[in-house]
Amino acid sequence: GVYVALDPDATKKELEIIQTLLSFDIEVWKVDIGDNEDVGSMSKDQFQKCLENATLITPDNYLLLTLTMSL
Fold this sequence. Notes:
By secondary structure, this protein is of the alpha+beta class. The protein contains three helices and three strands; from the N terminus they run βαβαβα.
């Protein structure tokens, strides 16, 4: 599977990437980096915790994801 962890200001691009991967039947995990500016500003431990809490994105819950990320 692929883990997607883009900066919070790249929401539109992140959704496009997830949709493309799903269209090829690739398992996609969404990593929420919280209030961090980007992955590079996080410690290894912080990022590991985010990875452990990643959400599996399926075609079924993709629409829900797009709705919640657009709020």
